[in-house]
Amino acid sequence: MQENKPILIVGLGNPGAQYRRTRHNVGFMAVEHLAGDGAKWRGELFAKTYSANIDGRRVIFALPQTFMNDSGRAVRAIMDFYKVPIENLFVIHDDMDLKLGDMRTKVGGSSAGHNGIKSIDANVGREYTRIRIGIDHPRNLGLPIDAADWVLGRFTDAQMEIIRKTLNEINLVG
Q1: DSSP codes joined into one string, 1-63
Q2: Which of 13, 44, 159, 163 has the greatest CB tally within 10 Å of its CB?
Q3: Predicted local confidence at residue 174, as pLDDT
Q4: Contact between 78 and 8 (Cβ < 8 Å)
Q5: 54 forms bridges with which residues in the sheet?
Q6: What's the pLDDT tens digit per position in 112-132?
Q7: Judging by DSSP bridges, how do beta strands 42-44 and 7-11 pair with one another?
């Protein structure tokens, strides 16, 4: 990480009330949680952003408003404008290959079919930190639901409780 440069924390999701609490929007939920209740979001650079000073570092929280498949366009615009190096980029997203609430962090790697990650990789490269939050896969649960329908489905109250506990475990800065 470059110490003298801003940190960019991006949550992946889809904009709009119809996508709130959906599995695909767990990245949005995580970034909103990290930014805190008092965050003053503004629209810029194809995203909703909030900037804070945490322990003397500028931290930019971002929720791309381009829809999942085009997230990279917003990430590239924000990185260019704020001069964020790729090693200071953190992207939080859903992962069907992880059990509900499990969390894994890695730098680089493949998109594993995640369209938001594919878009970011195409726009900025792969050497950024990814925080993957498990949402389960319907086949692992014995459910006859298409994966696309699964990610756009809403969490139950019990599932949201598990996700809230996971979000409380995220600590990137400060």
Answers
A1: --TTS-EEEEE----SGGGTTBGGGHHHHHHHHHH-TT---EEETTEEEEEEEETTEEEEEEE
A2: 13
A3: 44
A4: yes
A5: 57
A6: 778 889 999 999 999 999 999
A7: unpaired
Structure tokens at 11: 């949550």
If you search the block for the tokens 């756009």, which residue do you land on?
Answer: 152
Q: Whole-angstrom Cα distance, residue 54 to residue 37?
A: 15
- State the burial class of residue 85 (Cβ atoms within 10 Å of its Cβ: 0-12, 13-18, 19+): middle
Encode the chain (174 residues) as per-residue pLDDT tens digits. Answer: 777 899 999 999 999 999 988 999 999 999 999 998 889 999 999 999 999 988 888 999 999 999 889 999 999 999 999 999 999 999 999 999 999 999 999 998 887 778 889 999 999 999 999 999 999 888 888 888 888 888 899 999 999 999 999 999 887 654
